[in-house]
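Researcher: We plan to redesign the surface later, but first we want a full-length starting point. Tokens attached.
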């Protein structure tokens, strides 16, 4: 129950609703016992009339009407309680989802580097669903069951103490068996959840990379992977089912034996005249009512175990340390003529060797700098540090003379626009993708940005224009079109620092030229940082920083570095030689 108590504690804003539900349940549980008690007096009144003609018709009618009225009021209160319980469960679902999502948005980038997105979503869905089921069960079954059990035993004790003792003994026996059954079920549920997470995560990855899966003819491999996990899940479920049914048999056997004892006592008491027929009817009704809470016990305890197991990962994520506070109000000021300085910066990811080692450089205002070097040299890591996705392991970064350690991540990122290598687009409209960096922008501003990005012509060709939906990750657009949408987004944001992360590496020559024209408009009067392997994308760079194995091995003007032995000249030579061979092959000189 540890996680359930934590749910109750963190959902403090909803406690008022829970209190009202509790009062309604208390009233409905009490009212539910009154009709059986009234039925006792009705039966006794009828028997009085049959035996000695002393029955009172007016009293009989009054008792019947009273029983109906109380039942009707009970139905109204139960309906109101159930409806409010559903409302409470919905509000709790919203509250817990928002709390989870809020936490996820504040987690450090390192967390997402080590987790599969489908797994995170599955953990959230399972936790919220199991908690909501528990809350629905609590309001519709658990509290009414608990209160009805107490009221039933109290009334039975008034009319027959032995029978009340039988029922009292039955509850702990039934509850104990249900507890051990659901406890073992819950232990297996945690094990089963791990395979569920693997499956959901893999399905998400396969759908996201469906072209790779199909082009590699790996559909059978992926199907077998999923099928094997499902087989393992079913084996675990089979063990859960076998355990449940063994305990269920023991529960039902204990119920039959105790009901037998109750029947013997009740019928014998009525036969000997120790109790009236009306009291016998009342006892039988109350015993029947007591069976309903018992049958609900297994369901309730199963919900408790599922809520405990399902919310385990939920609270594990909530317990992680937040790295950012996105709700903090930071003025969206633009820093004029920004400069960036790295001073003896070193960085290493968790459980890995150092990626950057004592890196130092200065980026001046309105400079265009290219980061060049082999794959894995540390270029992207430098960009991640500039974006404040990570903090240096040692050393300092300065933005226009101010230490990054003293700058809020929102302020830093407000001053940076990016164009990624991959098309970072949402499956919404072109307009919404373009204005993602400036949500308040008008359609006229979006169109102006598209024109500057050399994108408006192809956007106009679509039936819905800027309201055209691009599909997941822009699947309905070509590579060049997607990149120009990204450029338009960066133009609209109009940040003083621009980062181009391999922005044209995946494009054909024609598309690259179209994007290059768009980039020329974007790069004006900005501090531009370019990551590129293709030298055609860094023609406008005023300065080159060459990185190898996490260290700066050269920096300077492109012409100066090209004339000296080193990595830059080697990379340039390899590309020129490749182009030269292609020209010679087709006898183009």
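Model: Full-length starting sequence:
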């Amino acid at each position: 129950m540890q996680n359930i108590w934590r749910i109750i504690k963190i959902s403090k804003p909803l406690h008022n609703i829970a209190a009202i539900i509790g009062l309604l349940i208390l009233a409905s549980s009490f009212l539910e016992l009154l009709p059986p008690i009234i039925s006792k007096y009705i039966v006794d009144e009828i028997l009085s009339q049959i035996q000695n003609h002393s029955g009172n018709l007016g009293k009989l009618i009054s008792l019947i009407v009273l029983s109906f009225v109380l039942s009707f009021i009970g139905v109204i209160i139960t309906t109101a309680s159930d409806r409010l319980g559903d409302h409470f469960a919905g509000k709790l679902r919203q509250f817990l989802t928002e709390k989870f999502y809020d936490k996820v948005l504040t987690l450090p980038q390192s967390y997402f580097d080590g987790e599969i997105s489908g797994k995170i979503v599955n953990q959230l869905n399972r936790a919220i669903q199991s908690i909501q089921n528990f809350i629905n069960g609590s309001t519709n079954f658990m509290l009414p069951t608990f209160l009805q059990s107490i009221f039933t035993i109290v009334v039975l004790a008034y009319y027959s103490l032995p029978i009340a003792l039988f029922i009292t003994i039955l509850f702990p026996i039934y509850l104990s068996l249900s507890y051990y059954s659901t406890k073992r079920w819950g232990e297996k549920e945690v094990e089963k959840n791990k395979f569920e997470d693997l499956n959901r995560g893999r399905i998400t990855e396969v759908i996201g990379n469906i072209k790779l899966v199909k082009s590699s003819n790996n559909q059978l491999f992926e199907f077998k992977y999923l099928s094997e996990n499902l087989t393992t899940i079913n084996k675990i479920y089979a063990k859960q089912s076998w355990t449940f049914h063994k305990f269920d048999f023991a529960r039902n056997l204990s119920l039959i034996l105790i009901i037998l004892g109750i029947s013997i006592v009740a019928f014998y008491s009525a036969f000997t005249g120790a109790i009236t027929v009306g009291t016998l009817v009342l006892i039988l009704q109350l015993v029947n009512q007591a069976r309903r809470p018992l049958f609900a016990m297994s369901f309730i305890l199963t919900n408790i175990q599922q809520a405990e197991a399902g919310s385990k990962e939920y609270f594990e994520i909530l317990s992680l340390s937040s790295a950012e506070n996105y709700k903090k109000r930071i003025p969206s000021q633009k820093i004029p003529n920004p400069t960036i300085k790295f001073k003896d910066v070193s960085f290493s990811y968790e459980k890995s060797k150092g990626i950057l080692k004592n890196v130092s450089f200065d980026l001046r205002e309105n400079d265009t700098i290219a980061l060049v070097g082999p794959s894995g040299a540390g270029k992207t890591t430098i960009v991640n540090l500039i974006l404040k996705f990570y903090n240096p392991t040692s050393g300092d970064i300065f933005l226009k003379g101010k230490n990054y350690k003293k700058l809020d991540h929102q302020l830093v990122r407000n001053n940076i626009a990016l164009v990624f290598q991959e098309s970072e687009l949402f499956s919404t409209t072109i307009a919404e993708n373009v204005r993602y960096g400036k949500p308040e922008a008008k359609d006229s501003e979006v169109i102006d940005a598209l024109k500057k990005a050399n994108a408006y012509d192809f956007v106009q060709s679509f039936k819905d224009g800027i309201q055209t939906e691009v599909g997941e990750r822009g699947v309905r657009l070509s590579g060049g079109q997607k990149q120009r949408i990204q450029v338009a987004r960066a133009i609209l944001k109009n940040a003083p620092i621009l980062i181009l992360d391999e922005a044209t590496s995946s494009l054909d020559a024609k598309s690259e030229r179209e994007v290059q024209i768009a980039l020329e408009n974007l790069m004006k009067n900005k501090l531009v940082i370019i990551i590129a392997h293709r030298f055609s994308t860094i023609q406008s760079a005023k300065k080159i920083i060459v990185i190898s194995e996490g260290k700066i091995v050269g920096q300077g003007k492109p012409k100066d570095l090209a004339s000296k032995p080193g990595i830059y000249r080697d990379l340039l030579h390899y590309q020129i030689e490749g182009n030269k061979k292609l020209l010679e092959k087709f006898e183009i000189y």
